[in-house]
């Protein structure tokens, strides 16, 4: 196991633990305002307040506390969005690949339509019509990349269904459900895991983009993306307001991608047999 993988695993573990225990670790309430302590830089800079390790924002709120709570909500949004997209895309991709015919044409036609649309505009339309509730945002994130999963799984299934072991199972009377769960899914875990890890990072960036436009989780609730969006007007005078949550986004995305590569190498049945 390489040092890079161990470092990514430790980073991911630390981030997850910070998110889980955010209420206990945060030194202040995330929405607590102290206008007399506004725009204080992190420790090590002039005018820093020792009580605020990462500094304060434009309303005097502690950035460390807001980052911890924001990390928790950001990871939850990305996780639920990834699970929804994965479940929907894998299910439809299996149906399209195994059944073929009109089911394949219908599903892949819808996939092509989804992939041809700029999803940011679709998200803006859905949020404008349904509101900015957290449940709506999770649904928007969930449908963001399901088409990528569906196309990937369909391509993998089309390549597997003509192989001898699948034809033998079909000749033995195995149902399509049995073929899908026993013979198909174990052999396509690797690309699914890699795509899920990449989409996890992409969903964090999508949430950040929506929050930057004011269409994500609404203030005063903190997510990493909303903190970047709210601090953009202060980048010239108080860059730490944007830099701290932005660095957390980079760390989360990097850890997710590196762990995805690690899981691919260890979950791929074909790689293990070599």
UniProtKB/TrEMBL annotation:
Its main location: membrane. CDD domains: TM_PBP2. SUPFAM superfamilies: MetI-like. Keywords: Cell membrane, Membrane, Transmembrane, Transmembrane helix, Transport. Coiled coil: none annotated. The keyword rRNA processing does not apply. It is found in: Cell membrane. It is a multi-pass membrane protein. Residues 71-260 form the ABC transmembrane type-1 domain. One of its GO terms (cellular component) is plasma membrane. The chain crosses the membrane at residues 73-99, 192-217, 237-263. The keyword Transmembrane applies. One of its GO terms (biological process) is transmembrane transport. Belongs to the binding-protein-dependent transport system permease family. This is ABC transporter permease. It comes from Bosea vaviloviae.
